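Worked Example 4.2. Consider the chain below.
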Amino acid sequence: MRNFAYIIFDKFFVGGNDVERKNVVDRCLENEKRTFSKYAFFTADTKGREKPYTASDVRTEFQRDRDKITHSQSFRRLMYKTQVFLSPTGDHYRTRMTHTLEVTQIARIIARALRLNEDLTEAAALGHDIGHTPFGHAGENAMQKCFDPEFTHYKQSIRVVEVLENNGEGLNLTWEVRDGIANHTGSNMASTLEGIIVKYADRIAYINHDIDDACRGGILSVEDIPAELRQKLGETHSERINTMVMSIIKASENKSFIVMEDDIQQAANALREFLFENVYRNPKAKSEESKAKDMLMYLFEYYVKNPDKMPELYQKRRDLDGIERCACDFISGMTDRYAIETFSDICIPKVWRGPQ
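Applying the procedure from the previous section yields the following structure tokens:
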């Protein structure tokens, strides 16, 4: 006699009738057709992956991408990478990992409300910062100075998922998820509405949690935010996020584009400018950034001169990519604390202890 779990999997119940067995993916794809907006990206329409693979019966393509990202080493390292404050000692400051999770949560709420592809949105959101350097944008700036002025964290994120992860095999993600990762910032625009949502969610998340962290760090108080912006967007962290999310949902529902209401967008932009002036360029918040940049630039020069000191993966790619590219890849993948420990091992002499 078959067990109960197998029977439940073998058939599913619709409107009082047993239906012939269909795998989970088939049922998910049928559900998309019934429930998605006509502007959603349907999983069945994916451009697919660059390398051959075996399809799954229980996960759609974008669900598989989500899992590939969350099980990757690069994703786990986000836990110890700077968001705004360098290597903060407090337990409640955001890291690149918590930022990513907040972006994903906001993006999923918007996608669900607009009846778009939540799985695609989630996968792109989880991977959007997977290639970010240690020490946040200070690390990005260091790589621009010593490696390539065109270096950006979003380009590095694509390199991670296509080339570096999985011991040099890459994650073999779908085209749409990679497109969402590559176009989540700046003037870039993703090809799907789901990818564009990630762009908005990223900004909503960092604007609001950076205020929270800056207040925790004594850099500013909520009362420092201009009164007209607090009145328009909200007094608290949750109120501001809710205002921005609801504005996108109202302005984008049943539309072929994603947009925020004009007045809320203007206020959000003004709040972002306020943060640049009072937090991102604040000498108190950024007092250690020059040290972090100098440290990473020193490590870059060290590994260019001593490539045999890099892990095997980067040594294997030397002939293909060049030593400088490999040094950049290795350093970009470091966590804050690993970079500090490595620099210390290289530059600070150990105390010699003889027999006691």
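Confidence is low (pLDDT under 50) at residues 1-21. The beta strands are 12-14, 17-19. Compare this with Example 4.1 before moving on.
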